[in-house]
Amino acid sequence: MSARWERREIVLRTTATGHRLTAPVFWCHGRNERPLAYIQANVHGGELQGNAAILALFDLLEKEAPRGSLLFAPRVNPIAASQQIGDYVAGVYDFGSGQNFNRGYLYLTGPSRASSAPYVDVDAFSAVHRDATLTEIRDGFREALKAALHAIRESAATWGLDTRLEFALAIQELAVEADVVLDLHTGDRAPRYLYAPEGAVAATRAFGIPFVLEVPPRFAGALDEATFVPWNDLSEAFKRVARSDVRRFVDGFTVELGSMNAFSLAQGTEDAKRIASVLRYYGILDGEPDDPAYRISSCAVADYQSIAAPAGGLVDTVVSPGSPVKKGDLLARLVDPSLCGLPPRSADAVIEVRAPEDGIVILYHAFASIPKGARLLSMMTRVKPL
Amino acid sequence: MSARWERREIVLRTTATGHRLTAPVFWCHGRNERPLAYIQANVHGGELQGNAAILALFDLLEKEAPRGSLLFAPRVNPIAASQQIGDYVAGVYDFGSGQNFNRGYLYLTGPSRASSAPYVDVDAFSAVHRDATLTEIRDGFREALKAALHAIRESAATWGLDTRLEFALAIQELAVEADVVLDLHTGDRAPRYLYAPEGAVAATRAFGIPFVLEVPPRFAGALDEATFVPWNDLSEAFKRVARSDVRRFVDGFTVELGSMNAFSLAQGTEDAKRIASVLRYYGILDGEPDDPAYRISSCAVADYQSIAAPAGGLVDTVVSPGSPVKKGDLLARLVDPSLCGLPPRSADAVIEVRAPEDGIVILYHAFASIPKGARLLSMMTRVKPL
Amino acid sequence: MSARWERREIVLRTTATGHRLTAPVFWCHGRNERPLAYIQANVHGGELQGNAAILALFDLLEKEAPRGSLLFAPRVNPIAASQQIGDYVAGVYDFGSGQNFNRGYLYLTGPSRASSAPYVDVDAFSAVHRDATLTEIRDGFREALKAALHAIRESAATWGLDTRLEFALAIQELAVEADVVLDLHTGDRAPRYLYAPEGAVAATRAFGIPFVLEVPPRFAGALDEATFVPWNDLSEAFKRVARSDVRRFVDGFTVELGSMNAFSLAQGTEDAKRIASVLRYYGILDGEPDDPAYRISSCAVADYQSIAAPAGGLVDTVVSPGSPVKKGDLLARLVDPSLCGLPPRSADAVIEVRAPEDGIVILYHAFASIPKGARLLSMMTRVKPL
Amino acid sequence: MSARWERREIVLRTTATGHRLTAPVFWCHGRNERPLAYIQANVHGGELQGNAAILALFDLLEKEAPRGSLLFAPRVNPIAASQQIGDYVAGVYDFGSGQNFNRGYLYLTGPSRASSAPYVDVDAFSAVHRDATLTEIRDGFREALKAALHAIRESAATWGLDTRLEFALAIQELAVEADVVLDLHTGDRAPRYLYAPEGAVAATRAFGIPFVLEVPPRFAGALDEATFVPWNDLSEAFKRVARSDVRRFVDGFTVELGSMNAFSLAQGTEDAKRIASVLRYYGILDGEPDDPAYRISSCAVADYQSIAAPAGGLVDTVVSPGSPVKKGDLLARLVDPSLCGLPPRSADAVIEVRAPEDGIVILYHAFASIPKGARLLSMMTRVKPL
After folding, report:
1. Contacting partners of chain C (3+ CB pairs under 8 A)
2. Which of C118, C221, D145, D284 could form a Cys-Cys staple with D279, CB 3.0–4.6 A?
């Protein structure tokens, strides 16, 4: 029996001329409604490859009817995708508000900074549900989160729904349903790497992605955090009332599928295999996840460090993203011809940038010309095997 | 005896081609080094009028040698001032990072979110200075704040100074010296209005500005907060060790001098008079502050509310910024001709926006065309006389 | 008998996410299909007021059924209208191609620079139609122009329709039908003024707009030229075969309705009256055009001169747009505080800009801060009464 | 004897805050002042590689003192280099004026469209110099061109120097001195290719670049044309007075060094070798030019055709830039997931783009997401060996 599919459109923004910028949402109903995965791509306008992964998953699901269900939102941000000036898409920050499109989600178990939004009090919830079954807790808490989203939408009736809220609600109203959320991004110039919730080791290994940044359960606005932090808060609240059996029921991952501005259907097939393995882990697809083909290196997000360019200039990279480096290794040359004296020599134009610590270079700035102080590169430090 | 002047340049950014974007700083040494005012203008690239006020203050100081001293930084943000696309300057958000240029300052008595920055522990400071004189406390705390700034700069030696830090440090290294800080901004389409620290009533009245938003002592990244919140924290810490004589020694104000993209030397003379009155209040100029010519209306910043545009469209404003309105009053028409049916009638294109509460309309969106969800207007509610 | 209305949508652009950016077109069929006016507004994204005029014309046409017919395209450029960065719309140049949206139309009686587009050879046409009636000539030439547009669209089948062509064709396929075209724009900071074809004196007077720039019959890419220059070329071609009775049958005007970023429904009613007067002149509405209320000043477009800012700085304007000035009169102060020496004086910061000739100041740059070399203001010179 | 070097700065723009955006110019005086080459890089802000070539030429000139002289302007456009929004530089079009930075140069032997600029009348010049020696003609004509540039600068005294003129003059006042001009650009996603003046076969072969677009002697605003077209006009004028010995004395090339946003010092060494070979051809370096290592393919610029994207979407490229293709070959897939039906299949999302003719694919759009109608790719057609 093949899966049953539905499609609808969500509205992310309405322009000044009244055009509704929508994203298509494809809902694949498998043999069971749950577990349910929510997979979106391209929330940053220039991070394209996740769309190829989703298209390849469409084809995979035609061959392999899922045990659970899946919600897909490719090209989820039509606003950012059209922030094209000249040749390039500048899709991270909203041209209207400066807001990073992946930092404006709502923290449903804590008051959001920018709004007097309703939220779920996990301690009150755990007190009331102290003797409930795990299923009652899971279902009840999800209903509570959905009620909070509904209340936020309602409370905007008086003063209006601002662009950040409208965007966040459109996406979180889908994501809140899921048992696992995959937010498909890319790095700047980067290999595949992964932001994974602390402690989700087995799920993380199922991705088979060699570089992992472990995200602590603290909300800073991203979708992965907006997904798993409330469930982590719930688990902690139950511990405070002496129930240690309430684990974090929901996970959220930010999956970085290579470099910004790269798009390949062929690579998408490979990416879909990685994602399928995770879906097997979560019981959404049948079968067992793959064993990772590589040794997996991880570090805490706090140990994922960036070098701010010590000068403005052209960027001549030295190592391939994904390479281990030792403290003092040359990582990049910043080149400014105006530094040349007379007679001019190329060496005069070069400022060398070296590794401040041992680690793994994960990404370089997407463009090979940057002002002083922009992020030149980011690297994992205090790396350990996962 | 006339004042002694010094001038230097601060560097706010270095471009990819190595050009240093600087701002001129003019230091007017009066009869005494203190009290000292720091006055900057145009941190948002399109908010111009503060520069006219500073120029008029230059002329005023030639006639009237000050008792204290003053530091002026007109055109303090050459980065934002050049974010000009087509006809207009888009100067609020950094094109490179999305950062609001007035939300990236450092909280020197609390850990900054985006950096592991050193900071001053006010409780440790108050414990050590429990028996110190007020002068010792004031001078000692200022030195501690300066040491924190220095330590932040030093700690960036390893991984580099990012654009936000470089910008914030350049300005805060000046502002930290001051007894009062005036950050000269404008609204979008607005009258003169003022963000003033809660409780600074007499100083606030000295401005003679009819609309006042009272800022609580909580840090959210703006320069006024970065200025007065640490001193407020200090005062609170001393209260915790039972010394109630340590008042908040330093104030910070955001002064909104009319509308974005307006610039008038003649109006600058009027604005300089308002500022001179405040400088008299703080003892930087001789004489008494002016009595306000108008009744002053105030509300808490939390009661300063914005209407998000309920639809995309053209904006036909109905009341003048600064007008009191009653709940239900028509405030604006949003106009979208595509809403017209057949035969088309202008009324079909109009969505009326009415006041959700009683209050005073302070500003309208700067541009007369906006997408759904953008801030259409902001208004004071729960207004009370100051 | 009231007019019959139709509505359809034209597509101006399809985004990278497949969203079609459309404009609504309202066709008012009066007692006769001809004469036909085509009236569009807001082809530059920040020039808004024409939309108010069109809405007011809708209401006027409900009261007064027209003798001829009218085609309206308000908000005709949804691409430009969404080029909003921060607070402002930068709507003149296409973010993707740099193209001024009002310089990319096709010259249907001469080869377009950027395309090997088919065109109508007026000399061949006049040779063939040497003995035709005026009606045959008019109708035949219009069909020839339409055939050229059709052929251009067809010829793009192989290599594709680029964004400029797609935009131009969508609009010119409407405009080509008309006997008079009004393209509603605004100046930067300006009064109402008018670009009118050379020689169209009576029609021009019917607008009652006090400032007129006379456009020679030479194509430079704008819609008014794209409209009337082919018909002028035809008239000239017939003169070459000794028929002087073939006047220019079609006129095109660019109507500047005040300042960019101003929008007022109330002013729109006034603007609609001006346009209605012109429609009476052309026989599309019944009755006689109004006599102009003011003396009308005109000059050739070649005598409409711009002052490039002699320095970067803040702009303090001195005269109201629309004011007559004498050579040597102060027009603006450019203000750069970094020019101040010690002690700083406001006068040091000021560079005065004076009129190089007698004339009438028509517009100032829209923003009060500009780089060196940007258009500071434009003024009519060699002004004569119309 | 080693070369003597000088350095100076040219000013390309002065910002609204008075900052002068400059480029460094390095003048290498060899054994003779002539022949002289002018080599600039990065006039489009995102086209970086030419800077690496210039730096490598600096090192080469330290080892090998030149016979003639060279003028270098790396990073010649600091305006464009700072047009960075988010991660990318949008450096082709001036944010202020929409002007393509490589289309605003002055045509010194024909009236420029946008200015009433003085120019040199080649027919008058050839009449006067009918009996002059070739050296007198060459030197005299260069002086005439320089006088025209001077007159243009002077004539701007009244109404001011606009940004386009200021930029063009700063560069052309250098380039006019040269016997050969190399303007170092890059394609979007492209191999090395070359725009060469029609007929300059031997010089063109000296580059050893496999793909050549032949530029006819018609001015369209680019620097290569601004360089050689006046000298071509002169040659033609002398032919009209029956002197066929006056060949085109000066050549200009646009050298495309790979892809936008690529920068490699190592590749720069290779690029410098190509340029050195050309400098040998022109007698600026000693020795003979290299024989090209590859078969060189060429076509007329008119046969260099672009495919406008037939739909908006993600771009999955199929062939490597530089590949020959046959009519009907698949070149790219445009991918829009919103085209998927139910159940969704990846194939539904794909629009195939095939070669309309035989040819060689030279470049793909720089970004892998584009709106409908943007240039998807460009290819040479009617290719012939050079």
Report:
1. A, B, D
2. D284
Give this prediction's pTM: 0.97
A26-41 average pLDDT score? 98
Tell me the three-class secondary structure of A236-282, residue by residue.
HHHHHCCCCCCCCCCEEEEEEEEECCCCCHHHHHHHHHHHHHHHHHC
The answer to whether the CB atoms of C96 and A84 lie below 8 A apart is: yes
Nearest by CB to residue D338, choosing from A24, A344, A350, is: A24
Q: Which two tokens stand for residue C263?
A: 């929008």
Q: What are phi and psi of D350, to 5 degrees?
A: -105, 130
Per the CB < 8 A criterion, the answer to whether A339 and A314 are in contact is: no
The helix or strand, by DSSP H or E, that contains position B135, with its residue range, turns out to be helix B134-155
Residue B301 neighbours by CB under 8 Å, 6+ apart: B195, B213, B214, B215, B216
Write down which chains contact chain B via at least 3 CB pairs under 8 A.
A, C, D
Encode B81-97: b = buried (16+ Cβ within 10 Å), e = exposed.
bbbbbbbbbbbbbbbbb
Largest pairwise CA distance in chain C:
82
- Name every chain D residue with its beta carbon within 8 A of the beta carbon of A24: 337-338, 340
Q: What angle do CA A43, A49, A50 make, to 5 degrees?
A: 55
User: Whole-angstrom Cα distance, residue D103 to residue A239?
Assistant: 69
- What are D185-242's pLDDT values in tens digits? 999 999 999 999 999 999 999 999 999 999 999 999 999 999 999 999 999 999 999 9
Structure tokens at C375: 């258009």
> For the purposes of burial, counting CB atoms within 10 Å of the CB of D250, is it exposed (0-12), middle (13-18) or buried (19 or more)?
buried
Instruction: Please state whether the peptide bond connecting residue C343 to the residue before it is cis, i.e. omega within 30 degrees of 0.
Output: yes
Q: What is the C-alpha to C-alpha distance for residues C214 and A197, in angstroms, rounded to an integer?
A: 69
Q: Which residue of B has its CA nearest to C29?
A: B343
Contact yes or no for C52/C16 (Cβ under 8 A): no
- State which residue of chain D sits closest to C302, comparing Cα positions: D116
Tell me the residue length of chain B: 386
- Which residues, 6 or more positions from D122, have their beta carbon under 8 angstroms from its beta carbon? D109, D230, D233, D234, D236, D237
CA distance D357 to chain C (A): 9
Helices (H), chain C: 49-63, 78-81, 122-128, 134-155, 163-175, 201-207, 223-240, 265-281
Q: How many CB pairs under 8 A join A and B?
A: 134
Contacts of B94 in chain A (CB under 8 A): 98
- pLDDT band, very low/low/confident/very high, at D2 (cuts 50, 70, 90): confident
- Cα separation, B204 vs B182, whole angstroms: 12
The minimum CA-CA distance between B315 and chain A, rounded to whole Å, is 10
Chain A's closest residue to B371, CA to CA, is A16
Give the Cα separation of A163 and B218 in Å (integer): 25
**Contact status, residue C222 vs residue C105, Cβ threshold 8 Å:** yes
Establish whether the linkage from the previous residue to B78 is cis, with ω within 30° of 0: no
Q: Which residue of C has its CA nearest to A76?
A: C17
C59 SS3 class: helix
Examine the pLDDT at D101 and tell me if it is beyond 70.
yes
* Joined tokens for residue B163: 């654009």
Summarize pLDDT for C231-277 with one digit per residue, the tens.
999 999 999 999 999 999 999 999 999 999 999 999 999 999 999 99
Contact D219, D226 (CB under 8 A): yes
**What are the tokens at B51?**
């520069």
Measured CB to CB, residues of chain C less than 8 Å from chain A are: 15-17, 19, 21-23, 75, 78, 81-82, 84-86, 89, 95-96, 98
ipTM strictly over 0.90? yes
